[in-house]
């Protein structure tokens, strides 16, 4: 299972990085979103994988490490805020610069 | 009802019920549920501008049961058609003349049609005199219209007295 | 109240930021100005008290939620943190004064954002927890994104697009790094990390290295380490004046983090993880310095010059980290304070020049004269002296410290030439800038813009720190050195290895 | 106990059916042809994942999955509605 | 008692699984968008309903008390599914999505897209 | 006496003219002179002691960490220079009183002048290497201010810049040399260093020290090839030239040679470099001086030549040469200062400095002419004048050295030629200006200057004569004291007599005089010869050089930095790839010892869908809406994965954030182009990016795998153990969020709040093109708010709120919590916006969202501050269980207030972002200032 998980994280990272390297704000923000999914899974993985062991006292026998979960939660929220800002900034750039390329007019 | 006192009693009842469904039936949750069933409608009343009065509980129950049955039947029907060859399929659009009035009743009707055998509500005409329906398989348009009128529109007219 | 003192530098701006969004402050410029002024003054007082505390005691911890380290989040006040807090307080105070002359009204929410920005910076200086550091990084980043666009304008938007998107990618790498760190260390408290670094499982060493180096990427991005520094000059040059001045401390947050993480956690006591960043930092810091010098010489506007100087100073500072001795860290610390305050002053001066020179703004071309040549020229002259590193202002002490920190071996052979040449380059470009901007005028000024007393006060306040840093240079260098020793030798208060864990109760 | 094995078998079989359904949904999403087909497929994917989560809960004998299913039910609708509104009006909040 | 409950649950599950499956097969197999719309709207909704019912039965038995909060999910689904279908159909009409050539009363589609009355 | 006062008094004096210039010119000059005069008095007072062989010292700690202390030391050399600096400085003050015009800012001028005086005194009195450098640099700065005093003149600006750049560069080199010296010796104390000559000379870095040190000295003293700045510094007002460029600043370089003579000299390296540079400078300066038409230009090159002479003397391997050098320092200062002042008078009274216009001034200003001619004669080395004596000593020493081995005979020959050139240009100065017919087109009719303007010249000329005639009486003691300070040992026998009999040096002098006269007589041929060459204008070349440097820098800079985010991101990614990948190369096998979970079909399929979704997102990224739909799959599967791997809270959060993100994307997409050009980059770029991103993916994937397969020993046990007892909740993740690490959460909602504010800022005043049709050119549907959607949405709102209350309240013990609840509420409200539109919502929900954010943050913060009342740190939580009849047992916890804050902040921020964005197209645009 760990192998599959890691492969998924790797592919998502690759996809995210590829999009982040594009020249259009939309693609970049899309890439950032993809990248942040990968990041969240990665950070989550630092607590290792546990099935049927939610860290709710009394609900399971073995508890998954709750700390990375809390960290990922924080990361998700921050990621949301950042994505939102980046998107609106892309709009602003479109309004101010007349196009949606990351470098403005020059290619 | 008054702004601060049960503005939407039916909603309140529903909310209390859902609260108890979610949390289980206990005294504590009953109290909390009551509070929420009061608070939430007070907060959301401004967002609810279609106050259709429903009446005739018996008719409602009969309608709901009928609907459940039809959903099951409709599913069997869909399953049959899906799994069979599609060549014999005769889909098509139907314009359903509405006798029913009011946004809420119309919504209920359209939803019912979508959940029941072979039909999906597509859209209303602007004057809400017609409901366009897409049917998976049409043999007789008029029969379909009559069927809907008979089974669903009539009871709804009764329930909402319109 | 005083037992909560450590928390003040974060709490005060947070509360201020909140109350600025609420009646009776919300929507009233004057009330907002006064409120932030008062908070800034309080921040100054708390920073001074904290510095005093750090001098009198061992490093102090403030445990959030009363949970013991390494489980709870610790704020730590040691000499290094206290110095940085004082620096940010002084900078914030002066820059805000400047902004109150009118820049604050060029867009909504300047004051609360300013407060949140300080909160983020101070939090990053105080926290002893690596994930909490990430959180404060994000606070200071999102605040900086928002402040960056203050006032609007095409170039500002373009700069913001670059700055924001690049930093978002950087934040992703931060989290990758943190993931690895937690996966190997099993803790987030930096002191605990330092403690565990030497005892890591051998199968975890390579992983921990990767994690530590990913953090180097992140801090390098903030600190303007080549090849991650290119975003900086245009961003700084294109934002509004007070924001650019405030940003002077932003690269320093990166430097500070490198100290906290790469000098302390992955420092000498780190066993196999010792000094993992040094090998990378050496050539890159040198390259940063060289690239900074080249960019500096190519500067066409005063703000760009100031921004490129930030890169040059970043290169120098990174070199002190690469040198990795307490002496070098002390040199870096002194130089950091000096370069932050003086760069900020230069940005503010550039702002005034920009406004008074009309169309030519701050470009190095012949144009109409500024309205207050003697005043602006004088202020510029002082800032330039300090930044070039000429006596009698603080730059020269910083330069001597840097040169001496390199020792007299082969390190010096690498470090001296770029450091000395950077001084020469600065001298060349500053003399060109100054003579062009203030003396090479033609025609008469077409506007009546004059500097607001608050603006002048702010600049003078910043500039005064430079002679002060020379006059009290002895005390300050002593302080830097003891802060550096504290960082190198006893990173942070050591945490009990593993506290007794109570039995699990359902 | 036979019935328990039967139940477990049913859970597994149902899971298999749901999983195949998911694959089919993705297939339709990739194929289109129109964007509305893809949205419909996404909507179905959302709803089918409710089934998956409920089954997971049954399989693990845990009640912790319920909220997830509830949220998918609520939010899947919002997402579909927003997408359709976008197709219709461009501006989803006007 | 337990085995009866188990059996009922198993049957419900299988029914649910079947309809979920059918809904998706229909989604894939049916010839045009409007016909495809029928499958998930009905079959999938119903399938989930059955699975939720199974879950209710099982959890009620396991906990020994009435546990029917899954009803809330069903409630949501049954309320929203027709609206989703309606919105999708509206969008498809608006976009003039192609439908089967031999669809009956095809001319109504254009009227519906404009929300006009039939002639 | 406290030595500190000697530089300190003039330093305080810099303020005097600034404060007093309103009181009139004479008063200003008088007041300005007061403190330097006092300082001079102090120096004079110390003379007896110094002559007696003592030295005065004063020291105070300053910045011991770097070895910089306030340390002054007055010995013979210091005394000599202090007298020059203060004495000539006072004369210059007097002179400048008449020289400056009404329009010049006299206060500023005097202030700079006194500042310079302080700096010079600091240099010559320093007893600490770094302090010496400190004042050294101050001389550069103050001289920059003085040269550029007439800053409206291009010449002045450029001349000042050039001087500053050259001497500044030298200063940096000097700093390097001094620090190396200090590090080698182990002390920055000058006395210690001066006593460590052997250590230095034997050190491996000695050559570096010599080179750096001499760079400093030579640039300052305008030695070849750094001499070019000095003539252009003549753009300064003449008092400045008289003071800085003849008597003092340019002497700072030779002062350094003198000061460090005992430790750095005495090696071949030193002698060869110093003597050759000196000789070259001597000849080049003298030759160039001959052709200058500008009076000050002639004097400037003459100065260069004489500085070369002094340098040459320091480079000759004899002690007497060093003594001669010190002697010539005095003599040159005296006659050159007077010549500059005379030139200034001529300029002042006639309006020109061009010798082609200036002719026959003897008739108009005979008195000044006499003074100038005496000084010029001294410059030429005419007997009975001071210049003669030191030149004789030079000639003598050139005959007694072996610096160049068998070629050493060249040195006396070249020195004699230099002497002849000096005679020639001095002759030209005298003849061309005061005789040679009538003036041509002078702006003014020349006449004698004001009485007191002449006084300084008179004093200096008298000194020339005095030293020239009775040298031993006039400067014998001073020279002795200074020279012994230079040599640091008993002086060899030497005599300061006018007449040494017929000897080699005298012959050389005669040859020089004869040669000079011949040269001048044949000047027409000489000028014609020189006229063939185009003038080398150092200023233009220097400016070109600087320009070249900046242009080349710009070219390299543009090459390095193309202002493209794509490159920045690429570099960032590659950098991360390299540093993170590097350690992995040392890793033997990624798999660790932790047992792995078995694979099952469902997970496999989910992973497959996830991968397909990812790839589809990437592939469809140019069809934006499609990409959005594809990324939704990814988000959904990630949420399911969280649920599967025992993280229900994460699953819930992921789901709700996912939907909010989609809505946001849709809102934004409306204003953005619907499609990206399919080929947004070259195939090469695509291949490059694909390779890089695959590598990054591989590294991250490997890291992830390595992490997952290693055992973890973490602090989390503590959280599980204390969650219920210490935090009052059974949902450990939630307790971490609101309690153990509540501070993170506070930060996180602050981020959200700030993002809301920032987005509001971005939206303020934004003008966007509103598309009238979709990407296929199809006009938008007419039905704004589909009735069914509207109705069902509003019916679902109470239900959604109830669910969010449910999620909120159980969060502490079960999956859920304030954040998720807040998002549910926000999304339910957004759904109303979608269904009903902004106008409809505006009537019902007219709430300043930033206020809601603030209230949320406030609640969270105050819930944390509450613990202060109980003397506990911030965010210390409290909880307890209560029981009410009928209701039963329930828990109350301060963490719930915190979570409520989270809830409000999330709602406020999300709505601020989404709803404001939605308002863009309506008439209800957000107003700046949030009012
Ligand atoms: Na809108
Ligand atoms: Na003449």
TrEMBL record, chain B:
Q: What is its main location?
A: membrane
Q: Which GO terms describe its molecular function?
A: monoatomic cation transmembrane transporter activity
Q: Which Pfam families match?
A: MNHE
Q: Where in the cell is it found?
A: Cell membrane
Q: Which UniProt keywords apply?
A: Cell membrane, Membrane, Transmembrane, Transmembrane helix
What protein does this entry describe? Na+/H+ antiporter subunit E
Annotated membrane topology is: Multi-pass membrane protein
The record's Gene Ontology cellular component field reads: plasma membrane
Q: Which organism is it from?
A: Thalassolituus pacificus
- Stretches that traverse the bilayer: 12-40
Database matches in PANTHER family: NA(+)/H(+) ANTIPORTER SUBUNIT E1 (PTHR34584), NA(+)_H(+) ANTIPORTER SUBUNIT E1 (PTHR34584:SF1)
Q: What does the sequence similarity comment in the record state about its family?
A: Belongs to the CPA3 antiporters (TC 2.A.63) subunit E family.
Q: Which domain of life is it from?
A: Bacteria
Automatic annotation (TrEMBL), chain D:
* GO CC field: plasma membrane
Sorted keywords for this record are: Antiport, Cell membrane, Ion transport, Membrane, Transmembrane, Transmembrane helix, Transport
Top-level taxon of origin: Bacteria
Show which residues constitute the signal peptide. Answer: none
UniProt xrefs under PANTHER family: NA(+)/H(+) ANTIPORTER SUBUNIT F1 (PTHR34702), NA(+)_H(+) ANTIPORTER SUBUNIT F (PTHR34702:SF1)
The family annotation for this protein states: Belongs to the CPA3 antiporters (TC 2.A.63) subunit F family.
Where are the bilayer-spanning segments?
6-27, 39-59, 65-88
InterPro entries named in the record: MrpF/PhaF-like
Q: What is this protein called?
A: K+/H+ antiporter subunit F
Q: How does it sit in the membrane?
A: Multi-pass membrane protein
Record localization? Cell membrane
Q: Which GO terms describe its molecular function?
A: sodium:proton antiporter activity
Q: What is its main location?
A: membrane
TrEMBL record, chain E:
Q: Which UniProt keywords apply?
A: Membrane, Transmembrane, Transmembrane helix
Q: Which residues cross the membrane?
A: 6-28, 40-59, 71-89
GO MF, any single term: sodium:proton antiporter activity
PANTHER family per UniProt: ANTIPORTER SUBUNIT MNHG2-RELATED
What protein name does the entry list? Answer: Na+/H+ antiporter subunit G
What organism is this sequence from?
Thalassolituus pacificus
UniProtKB/TrEMBL annotation, chain F:
Q: What is its main location?
A: membrane
- Domain NADH:quinone oxidoreductase/Mrp antiporter transmembrane stretches: 126-399
Gene Ontology process terms (BP):
monoatomic ion transport
Transmembrane segment boundaries: 6-24, 31-51, 71-97, 109-126, 132-150, 162-185, 205-230, 242-263, 269-291, 298-316, 322-346, 367-389, 409-430, 497-521, 568-585, 597-618, 625-645, 651-672, 692-708, 749-769, 789-809, 815-835, 847-870, 890-915
One Gene Ontology term, aspect cellular component? plasma membrane
One Gene Ontology molecular-function label: antiporter activity
Q: Which InterPro entries match?
A: CPA3_Na-H_Antiporter_A, MnhB, MrpA_C/MbhD, MrpA_C/MbhE, ND/Mrp_TM, Proton_antipo_N
MrpA C-terminal/MbhD domain spans which residues? 609-674
Give every NADH-Ubiquinone oxidoreductase (complex I) chain 5 N-terminal domain span: 63-110
Q: Where in the cell is it found?
A: Cell membrane; Membrane
Its record classes its membrane topology as: Multi-pass membrane protein
What are the residue boundaries of the MrpA C-terminal/MbhE domain, all occurrences included?
Answer: 685-779
Q: Which UniProt keywords apply?
A: Antiport, Cell membrane, Ion transport, Membrane, Transmembrane, Transmembrane helix, Transport
Name listed for the protein in its UniProt record: Monovalent cation/H+ antiporter subunit A
Phylogenetic classification of the source organism: Bacteria, Pseudomonadati, Pseudomonadota, Gammaproteobacteria, Oceanospirillales
């Amino acid at each position: 299972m760990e192998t599959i998980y890691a492969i998924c994280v790797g592919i998502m990272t690759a996809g995210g990085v590829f999009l982040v390297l594009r020249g259009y704000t939309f693609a970049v923000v899309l890439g950032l979103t993809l990248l942040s999914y990968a990041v969240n899974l990665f950070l989550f993985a630092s607590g290792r994988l546990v099935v049927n062991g939610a860290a709710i006292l009394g609900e399971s026998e073995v508890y998954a490490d709750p700390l990375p979960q809390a960290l990922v939660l924080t990361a998700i929220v921050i990621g949301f805020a950042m994505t939102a800002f980046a998107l609106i900034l892309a709009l602003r750039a479109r309004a101010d610069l007349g196009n949606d390329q990351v470098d403005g007019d020059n290619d | 009802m008054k702004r601060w006192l049960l503005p939407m009693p039916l909603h309140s009842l529903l909310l209390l019920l859902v609260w108890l469904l979610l949390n289980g039936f206990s005294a504590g949750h009953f109290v909390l549920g009551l509070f929420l069933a009061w608070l939430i409608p007070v907060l959301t009343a401004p967002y609810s501008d279609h106050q259709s009065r429903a009446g005739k509980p018996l008719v409602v129950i009969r309608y709901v049961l009928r609907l459940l049955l039809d959903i099951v039947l409709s599913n069997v029907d869909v399953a049959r058609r899906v799994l069979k060859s599609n060549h014999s399929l005769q889909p098509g659009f139907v314009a359903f003349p509405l006798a029913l009035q009011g946004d809420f009743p119309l919504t209920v009707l359209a939803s019912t049609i979508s959940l029941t055998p072979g039909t999906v509500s597509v859209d209303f005409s602007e004057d809400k005199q017609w409901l366009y329906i897409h049917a998976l398989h049409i043999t007789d348009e008029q029969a379909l219209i009559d069927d809907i009128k008979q089974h669903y529109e009539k009871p709804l007219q009764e329930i909402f007295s319109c | 109240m005083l037992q909560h003192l450590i928390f003040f530098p974060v709490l005060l701006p947070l509360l201020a930021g909140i109350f600025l969004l609420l009646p009776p402050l919300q929507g009233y410029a004057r009330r907002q100005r006064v409120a932030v002024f008062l908070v800034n003054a309080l921040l100054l007082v708390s920073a001074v008290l904290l510095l005093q505390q750090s001098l009198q005691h061992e490093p102090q911890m403030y445990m959030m939620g009363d949970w013991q380290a390494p489980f709870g989040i610790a704020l730590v006040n040691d000499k290094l943190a206290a110095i940085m807090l004082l620096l940010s307080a002084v900078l914030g105070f002066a820059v805000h004064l400047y902004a109150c002359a009118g820049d604050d009204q060029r867009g909504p929410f300047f004051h609360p954002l300013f407060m949140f920005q300080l909160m983020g910076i101070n939090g990053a200086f105080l926290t002893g927890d690596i994930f909490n550091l990430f959180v404060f990084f994000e606070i200071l980043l999102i605040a900086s994104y928002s402040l960056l666009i203050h006032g609007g304008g095409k170039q500002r938007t373009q700069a913001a697009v670059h700055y924001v998107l690049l930093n978002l990618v950087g934040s992703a790498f931060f989290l990758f790094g943190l993931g690895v760190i937690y996966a190997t260390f099993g803790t987030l408290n930096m002191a605990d990390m330092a403690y565990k670094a030497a005892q890591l499982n051998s199968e975890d060493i390579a992983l921990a290295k990767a994690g530590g180096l990913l953090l180097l990427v992140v801090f390098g991005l903030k600190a303007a380490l080549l090849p991650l520094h290119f975003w900086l000059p245009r961003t700084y040059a294109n934002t509004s004046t007070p924001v650019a001045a405030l940003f002077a401390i932003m690269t320093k947050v990166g430097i500070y983090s490198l100290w906290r993480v790469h000098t302390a956690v992955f420092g000498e006591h780190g066993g196999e993880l010792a000094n993992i960043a040094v090998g990378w930092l050496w050539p890159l810091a040198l390259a940063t310095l060289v690239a900074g010098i080249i960019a500096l010489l190519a500067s066409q506007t005063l703000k760009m010059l100031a921004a490129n100087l930030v890169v040059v100073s970043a290169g120098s500072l990174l070199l002190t980290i690469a040198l990795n001795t307490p002496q070098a860290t002390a040199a870096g610390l002194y130089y950091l304070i000096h370069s932050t305050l003086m760069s900020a002053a230069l940005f503010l001066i550039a702002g005034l020049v920009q406004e008074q020179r009309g169309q030519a703004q701050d470009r190095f071309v012949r144009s109409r004269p500024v309205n207050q040549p003697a005043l602006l020229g004088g202020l510029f002259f002082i800032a330039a002296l300090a930044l070039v590193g000429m006596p009698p202002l603080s730059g020269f002490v910083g330069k001597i410290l840097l040169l001496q920190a390199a020792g007299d071996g082969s390190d010096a052979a690498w470090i001296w030439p770029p450091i000395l040449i950077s001084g020469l380059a600065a001298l060349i470009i500053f003399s060109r800038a100054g003579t062009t901007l203030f003396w090479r005028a033609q025609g008469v000024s077409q506007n009546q813009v004059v500097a607001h007393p608050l603006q002048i006060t702010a600049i003078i306040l910043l500039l005064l720190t430079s002679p002060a840093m020379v006059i009290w240079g002895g005390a300050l260098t002593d302080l830097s050195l003891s802060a550096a020793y504290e960082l190198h030798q006893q990173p942070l208060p050591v945490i009990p290895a593993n506290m007794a864990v109570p039995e699990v109760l359902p | 106990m036979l019935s328990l094995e039967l139940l477990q078998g049913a859970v597994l079989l149902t899971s298999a059916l749901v999983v195949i359904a998911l694959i089919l949904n993705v297939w339709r999403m990739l194929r289109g042809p129109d964007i509305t087909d893809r949205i419909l497929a996404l909507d179905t994917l959302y709803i089918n994942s409710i089934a998956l989560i409920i089954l997971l809960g049954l399989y693990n004998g845990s009640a912790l999955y319920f909220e997830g299913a509830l949220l998918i039910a609520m939010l899947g609708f919002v997402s579909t509605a927003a997408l359709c509104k976008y197709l219709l009006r461009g501006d989803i909040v006007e | 008692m337990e085995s009866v409950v188990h059996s009922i649950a198993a049957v419900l599950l299988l029914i649910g699984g079947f309809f979920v499956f059918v809904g998706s097969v229909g989604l894939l197999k049916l010839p045009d968008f409007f016909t495809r719309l029928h499958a998930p709207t009905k079959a999938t909704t119903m399938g989930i309903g059955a699975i939720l019912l199974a879950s209710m039965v099982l959890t009620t038995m396991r906990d020994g008390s009435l546990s029917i909060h899954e009803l809330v999910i069903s409630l949501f689904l049954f309320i929203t599914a027709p609206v989703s279908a309606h919105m999708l159909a509206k969008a498809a009409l608006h976009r003039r999505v192609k439908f089967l050539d031999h669809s009956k009363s095809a001319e109504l589609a254009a009227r519906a897209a404009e929300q006009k009355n039939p002639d | 006496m406290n030595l500190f006062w000697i530089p300190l008094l003039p330093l305080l004096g810099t303020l005097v003219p600034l404060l007093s210039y309103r009181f009139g010119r004479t008063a200003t000059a008088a007041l300005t002179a007061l403190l330097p005069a006092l300082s001079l008095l102090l120096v004079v007072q110390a003379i007896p002691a110094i002559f007696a062989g003592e030295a005065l010292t004063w020291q105070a700690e300053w910045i011991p960490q770097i070895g910089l202390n306030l340390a002054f030391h007055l010995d013979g050399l210091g005394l000599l220079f202090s007298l020059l600096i203060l004495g000539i400085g006072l004369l210059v003050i007097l002179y400048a009183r008449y020289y400056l015009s009404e329009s010049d800012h006299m206060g500023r001028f005097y202030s700079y002048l006194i500042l310079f005086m302080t700096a010079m005194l600091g240099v010559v009195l320093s007893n600490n290497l770094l302090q010496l450098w400190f004042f050294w640099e101050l001389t550069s700065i103050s001289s920059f201010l003085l040269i550029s005093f007439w800053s409206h003149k291009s010449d002045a600006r450029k001349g000042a810049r050039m001087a500053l750049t050259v001497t500044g560069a030298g200063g940096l080199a000097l700093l390097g040399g001094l620090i190396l010296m200090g590090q080698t010796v182990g002390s920055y104390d000058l006395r210690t260093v001066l006593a460590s000559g052997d250590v230095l000379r034997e050190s491996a870095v000695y050559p570096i020290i010599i080179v750096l040190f001499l760079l400093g000295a030579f640039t300052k003293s305008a030695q070849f090839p750094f001499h070019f700045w000095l003539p252009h510094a003549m753009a300064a007002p003449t008092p400045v030239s008289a003071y800085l460029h003849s008597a003092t600043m340019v002497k700072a370089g030779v002062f350094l040679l003198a000061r460090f003579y005992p430790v750095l000299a005495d090696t071949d390296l030193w002698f060869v470099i110093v003597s050759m540079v000196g000789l070259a400078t001597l000849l080049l300066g003298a030759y160039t001086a001959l052709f200058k038409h500008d009076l000050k230009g002639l004097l400037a090159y003459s100065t260069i030549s004489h500085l070369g002479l002094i340098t040459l003397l320091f480079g000759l391997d004899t002690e007497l040469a060093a003594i001669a050098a010190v002697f010539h320092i005095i003599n040159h200062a005296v006659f050159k200062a007077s010549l500059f002042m005379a030139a200034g008078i001529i300029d002042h009274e006639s309006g020109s400095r061009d010798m082609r216009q200036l002719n026959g001034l003897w008739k108009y200003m005979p008195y000044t002419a006499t003074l100038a001619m005496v000084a010029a004669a001294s410059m030429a080395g005419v007997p009975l004048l001071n210049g003669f004596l030191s030149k004789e000593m030079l000639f003598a020493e050139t005959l007694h050295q072996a610096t160049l081995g068998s070629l050493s005979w060249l040195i006396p020959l070249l020195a004699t030629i230099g002497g002849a050139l000096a005679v020639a240009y001095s002759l030209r100065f005298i003849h061309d200006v005061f005789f040679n017919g009538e003036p041509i087109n002078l702006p003014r009719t020349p006449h004698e200057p004001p009485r007191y303007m002449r006084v300084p010249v008179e004093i200096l000329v008298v000194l020339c004569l005095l030293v020239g005639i009775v040298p031993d009486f006039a400067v014998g003691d001073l020279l002795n004291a200074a020279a012994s300070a230079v040599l640091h040992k008993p002086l060899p026998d030497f005599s300061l007599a006018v007449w040494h009999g017929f000897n080699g040096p005298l012959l050389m002098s005669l040859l020089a005089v004869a040669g000079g006269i011949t040269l001048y007589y044949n000047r027409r041929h000489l000028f014609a010869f020189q006229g063939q060459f185009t003038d080398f204008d150092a200023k233009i070349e220097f400016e070109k050089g600087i320009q070249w440097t900046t242009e080349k820098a710009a070219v390299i800079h543009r090459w390095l930095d193309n202002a493209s985010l794509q490159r920045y991101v690429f570099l960032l990614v590659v950098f991360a790839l390299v540093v993170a990948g590097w350690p992995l190369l040392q890793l033997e096998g990624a798999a660790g010892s932790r047992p792995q979970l078995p694979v099952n079909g469902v997970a496999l399929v989910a992973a497959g869908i996830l991968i397909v979704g990812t790839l589809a997102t990437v592939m469809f990224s140019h069809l934006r809406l499609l990409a959005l739909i594809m990324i939704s799959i990814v988000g959904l599967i990630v949420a399911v994965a969280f649920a599967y791997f025992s993280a229900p809270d994460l699953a819930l959060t992921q789901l709700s954030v996912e939907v909010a993100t989609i809505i946001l994307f849709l809102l934004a997409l409306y204003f953005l182009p619907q499609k990206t050009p399919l080929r947004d980059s070259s195939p090469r770029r695509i291949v490059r990016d694909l390779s890089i991103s695959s590598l990054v993916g591989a590294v991250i994937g490997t890291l992830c795998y390595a992490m997952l397969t290693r055992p973890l020993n973490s602090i989390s046990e503590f959280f599980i153990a204390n969650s219920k007892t210490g935090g009052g909740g059974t949902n450990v993740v939630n307790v971490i969020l609101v309690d153990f690490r509540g501070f993170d959460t506070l930060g996180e909602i602050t981020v959200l709040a700030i993002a809301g504010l920032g987005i509001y800022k971005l939206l303020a005043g934004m003008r966007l093109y509103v598309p009238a049709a979709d990407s296929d050119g199809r006009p938008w549907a007419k039905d704004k708010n589909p009735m069914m959607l509207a109705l069902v949405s509003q019916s679902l709102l109470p239900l959604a709120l109830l669910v969010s209350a449910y999620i909120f309240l159980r969060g502490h013990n079960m999956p859920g919590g304030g954040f998720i609840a807040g998002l549910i509420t926000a999304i339910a409200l957004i759904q109303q916006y979608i269904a009903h539109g902004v106008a409809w919502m505006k009537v019902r929900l007219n709430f300043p969202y930033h206020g809601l954010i603030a209230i949320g943050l406030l609640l969270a913060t105050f819930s944390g501050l509450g613990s202060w009342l109980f003397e506990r740190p911030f965010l210390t939580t409290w909880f307890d269980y209560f029981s009410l009849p009928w209701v039963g047992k329930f828990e109350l916890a301060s963490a719930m207030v915190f979570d409520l804050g989270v809830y409000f902040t999330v709602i406020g921020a999300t709505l601020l972002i989404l709803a404001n964005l939605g308002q863009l197209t309506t008439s209800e645009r957000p107003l700046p200032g949030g009012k």
